[in-house]
Amino acid sequence: MVKKGLFGLILILTVLTGCAFLTGQGLERTFFSAGYYRAILDEIDGEDLQDYFLAVEPPELNGRQLGTEAAIFRTLVRIAGEEWLREQAFYAVEEYLLFVTGEQEELVIKINLLEHQSVFLEALEKELGDLYPELLDEYGPQLLEEIITRLDLPTELTWVELDSKAELEPRFKEQLDRINQARTGLRILPWISLAVLLAAGFLWLKPGGTFIALGLGAFLSGVLYYFIWPAGWEAVVVPSVENMAAGRDFIELIWARDSHIIYSITTSIINRLSLYFAAFGVAVLVFGLFLEGCSRLARGASSSRKRSS
User: Mind giving me the DSSP string for 115-146?
Assistant: First the structure.
């Protein structure tokens, strides 16, 4: 009776440990994974990407006129191809992840303009031709050369520059700190719990019973997580994102337009992770049943020898 109670306790604790482990792994493979953002960017169409870039135009550029970095930034975004926009967005995401995870102290995101100056100038010529066709026809290349000389085009444009996390908006930083704390706990606690369960199982249930309990628990946690994580998304993730997005046009715009893409890709990752974990649990369960079967055969053979002797 006591052994059955211990088996049940270890089984329940394994299910809880498995759910915690899957939450941590889900966090690592989504919000802290560059590949996750790459998948999202690949699904966002070009017009939305342009709007997102324009929504995060550096504040110091707002309201400045033609010939300034603001004009260059806006023109470059308008003429850039989707692939370039995606590459720049992915580069920004990679730098941001290094910053928020503490792998680098500062966040500096710059756009190299050298390789795009010729494209920019072609777009500028077209824009001038549309606005002042007669003037451009009369003066031709001389007008464009004069404008270019006055523009004094920079070789790069600083998009974001933060010296430390202390420069983040307080509410955003507070939410980010909570996520990082949860991430740290979910990376450590499941392994500690597993070590304790293994020790307790080997002490009271022996190897076969231990692996049966752990395998069954892992299987149940994988299946359970597959069905319950969407409720956690609605209860935890959505309010957190909306809190972080409050007052930030950029995040609000993305969430309003493409939250369905984010959810779809998250679903694919989490569901696959849950099923893999359930399959792992089945493998451990089979191994435990094998060990238990071997143990019973060994005990049966030992009892037969004793009776025959």
Answer: GGHHHHHHHHHHHHHHH-HHHHHHHTHHHHHH
pLDDT at 67 over 80: no
Residue 252: DSSP 8-state: H
Q: How far apart are CA 168 and CA 294, in angstroms?
A: 60
- The residues pairing with 108 across neighbouring beta strands, listed in sequence order, are 161
Residue 165 near residue 99 (C-beta atoms within 8 A): yes
Return the SS3 of 110. strand
Query: What burial class does residue 124 get, using C-beta atoms within 10 Å of its C-beta: 0-12 exposed, 13-18 middle, 19+ buried?
Result: buried
Query: Rg of the chain's alpha carbons, rounded to an integer?
Result: 29
Q: What are the pLDDT digits (tens) for 89-125?
A: 899 899 999 998 888 888 888 877 666 666 666 766 7
- Tokens 């100056």 belong to 117
Predicted confidence (pLDDT) per residue in 256-287, tens digit:
899 999 999 999 999 999 999 999 999 999 99
Rounded to 10 degrees, what is the CA torsion of 244, 249, 250, 252? 60
CA torsion sign, 24 to 26 to 29 to 31?
Answer: negative
Q: Measured between alpha carbons, how far apart are the two ends of the chain, in Å?
A: 32
As to burial, measured by CB atoms within 10 angstroms (0-12 exposed, 13-18 middle, 19+ buried), residue 178 is exposed
H helices of 30-116, in order, are 34-43, 46-55, 69-79, 82-100
Two structure tokens written together for 201: 């199982």
Tokens of 183: 């991430």
The pLDDT value recorded for residue 308 is 62
- Note whether 8 and 192 are within 8 A (CB): no
Q: What is the pTM of this model?
A: 0.82
Question: Is the model's pLDDT at 135 over the cut of 80?
Answer: no
Residue 129: CB atoms within 10 A of its CB come to: 13
Residue at token pair 């949860």: 182
